[in-house]
Amino acid sequence: MTAAVAERTIYNPVQRDRVTFLEMAADTAGGRTLAELEVAPGGGNMLHRHLTYAEHFEVLEGVLTVEVDGVVLRLGPGQSAVAPIRSLHRWANESDAPAVCLIEVVPGHRGFEQTLQIGYGLAADGLTRDDGVPRRPADLAVLAELSDIRLPPPMALLAPLMTVLARRARANGHEQALIERYVTY
After folding, report:
1. Left (φ > 0), alpha (ψ -120 to 50) or beta: where does 110 sit?
2. Sequential DSSP letters for 120-176
3. Which residue, 84, 103, 115, 126, has most beta carbons within 10 Å?
4. From CA 24, how far away is CA 87, in angstroms rounded?
5. Residues with Cβ < 8 Å from 126, sequence gap 6 or more?
6. C-alpha to C-alpha distances, 33 to 108, 115, 121, 127, nearest whole angstrom
7. Any idea what the Cα angle at residue 12 is, between residues 55 and 125, rounded to 5°?
8. How far apart are CA 160 and CA 173, in angstroms?
9. Any bridge partners for residue 73, and if so which?
């Protein structure tokens, strides 16, 4: 790992996850975002989809559970899975040991990169719940908008409200304030 890449590591003290950006969208002319993710035991995220990018998971250490469109895979070192654009997916570490994987986002997505930095920063500042979800609805709306996340039913019913909150957050400068405070690369 080069010194420049080592500086692009963020840590979430709530979820105890660590992300190192190996390649960012700007590094690849938008071709991909590549990150190494260390997931603590019990860590993971909720079912969601992205409308504009796919996620590729390759396990380096430990065991990572990846669910894609209802198919659940338990991946060990050297194994991989793809969550295509628009697929309903999630990942989790259901084991008792850390899991390390590469996550490749294709095409690269600056909002994905910003969302991780903001979300981890909010966690470090005590502004998230125990599951890492921001406490303030405006923060959650900004993260959903930036990362192009869509939730499944019944949570999808909140999408119009989240869109309004995200627009207000952008209009009143809240989104920019989050970016200025937490996005460092």
Report:
1. alpha
2. HHHHHTT-B-TTS-BSSHHHHHHHHHHHTEEPPTTGGGGHHHHHHHHHHHHHTTHHH
3. 115
4. 23
5. none
6. 4, 13, 20, 26
7. 130
8. 20
9. 66
Q: How far apart are CA 62 and CA 86, in angstroms?
A: 27
In single-letter form, the type of residue at position 23 comes to: E
Name the residue among 70, 60, 62, 73 with its Cα closest to residue 34.
60
Please tell me the distance from the alpha carbon of residue 171 to that of residue 95, in angstroms, as a whole number: 43
pLDDT digits (tens, 9 = 90+) for 20-33: 999 999 999 999 99
Count Cβ atoms within 10 A of the Cβ of residue 141 and give its class: 0-12 exposed, 13-18 middle, 19 or more buried.
buried
Calculate Rg over the CA atoms of the chain. 16
Taking only the tens place, the pLDDT of each residue in 65-86 is 999 999 999 999 999 999 999 9
Distance CA 100, CA 38 (A): 4
**Dihedral sign from CA coordinates of 136, 141, 142, 144:** positive
Beta partners for residue 54, in sequence order: 106
Q: Give pTM, 2 decimals.
A: 0.93
